[in-house]
């Protein structure tokens, strides 16, 4: 494994062992039942966001080794409705890590168990902050992007982070 961390850069943070995005990736599978549906017979948006939040938190707990709190939800897209009886897969993967905050990309897809066809239905970005025992933000390990896409995503999010800090 590559030993050089791509991080937002602090001396303290270098002391923590870095982890790759794949190491903390989480995949949740849910069968959609009538209790999770709206009046149209589709999965409720709020319920879907709950699944996304859980999957994202699992990834960030795994990466940081701490309890985490949701800080932001960005760019959530509802491309297709999800119907009762469908199986939903919620995949959460880290795209960026700061000092105490972590950003995950969530991808949701459905699979038809008869045709085996899958469909990408939703995407979103969630930011979580790692908390210590007193519920204060605590430093997290660096992220070690491996693939070209992971490195590109990290740099893109780093630029957005720096722009937000400048504001
Ligand atoms: C999370 C929380 C403890 C952060 O407290 P805070 O005093 O803002 O702490 P900081 O200013 O040190 O910010 C902590 C991190 O959050 C990030 N952050 C804060 N506001 C942010 C925002 N609007 N967008 C993105 N990141 C943000 C900061 O950049 C920082 O990350 P960094 O250390 O990587 O630079 C506090 O905002 C909180 O308790 N929020 C409620 C969380 C909650 O109840 N969530 C829902 C249930 S889990």
TrEMBL record:
InterPro entries attached to this UniProt entry: Cytosol_ACT (IPR040170), HOTDOG_ACOT (IPR033120), HotDog_dom_sf (IPR029069), Thioestr_dom (IPR006683)
GO biological process, one term: fatty acid catabolic process
Ranges of compositional bias, category Basic and acidic residues: 148-167
Region described as Disordered: spans on this chain: 143-167
Record-annotated HotDog ACOT-type domain positions: 22-134
GO MF annotation list: long-chain fatty acyl-CoA hydrolase activity
GO cellular component: cytosol
Keyword annotations: Hydrolase
Family: Belongs to the acyl coenzyme A hydrolase family.
Protein name (record): Thioesterase superfamily protein
């Amino acid at each position: 494994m590559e030993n050089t961390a791509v991080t937002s850069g602090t001396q303290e943070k270098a002391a923590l062992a870095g982890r790759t995005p794949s190491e903390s990736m989480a995949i949740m599978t849910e069968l959609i039942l009538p209790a999770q549906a709206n009046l149209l017979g589709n999965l409720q948006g709020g319920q879907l966001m709950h699944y996304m939040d859980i999957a994202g938190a699992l990834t960030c707990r795994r990466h940081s080794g701490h309890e985490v709190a949701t800080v932001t939800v960005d760019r959530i897209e509802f491309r297709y409705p999800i119907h009762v009886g469908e199986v939903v897969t919620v995949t959460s993967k880290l795209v960026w890590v700061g000092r105490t905050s972590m950003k995950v990309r969530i991808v949701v897809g459905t699979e038809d168990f008869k045709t085996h066809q899958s469909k990408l239905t939703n995407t979103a970005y969630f930011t979580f902050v790692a908390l210590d025992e007193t519920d204060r933000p605590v430093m997290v390990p660096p992220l070690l992007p491996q693939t070209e896409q992971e490195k590109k995503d990290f740099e893109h999010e780093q630029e957005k982070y720096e722009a937000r800090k400048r504001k």
